[in-house]
Amino acid sequence: MAGIIESSPAHQNFSRYDIRVTIKFSVILGKDATCIHKDLVTVLGENIHSIQTVRKCVKAVSEGRDDMENEPRPSRPVTACGDANISKVLVSLSDDRRKNL
């Protein structure tokens, strides 16, 4: 059976969303985080979420989280790296190359 899993190309196409849904499904079946992590490693290999990440997902599902998509997070606005700012930096550097930015 293990040979079938290892040779299957389907395991290479798992997205983060797929993994989260798999974790949710496993929680519904009553599996704990350690068992879920072992299953994920068996199917997807060692380059999978850490056991800590699986525990966080299990906790979120157990507390009633239904949405498996990423939650929006505050971040730097896209304009921080815009053309206007790049031009300002280039002008500033052309004035004095030893300037600390």
Structure description:
This is Histone-lysine N-methyltransferase SETMAR. It comes from Elysia marginata. The chain is mostly helical and 101 residues long. The protein has a domain at 2-69. 55% of the residues lie in helices and 0% in strands. It is built from 5 helices and no strands. It has helices at residues 2-7, 16-28, 33-44, 51-62, 83-95.
Write a concise keyword list for the protein shown above:
101 residues; mainly alpha; 5 helices
Task: Give the secondary structure arrangement, pairings included.
Elements (H helix, E strand, L loop, with lengths): L1 H6 L8 H13 L4 H12 L6 H12 L20 H13 L6
Summary, kept brief:
InterPro entries: Transposase-MT_Hybrid (IPR052709). This protein has 5 helices and no strands. The protein starts with a helix and ends in a 6-residue tail after the last helix.
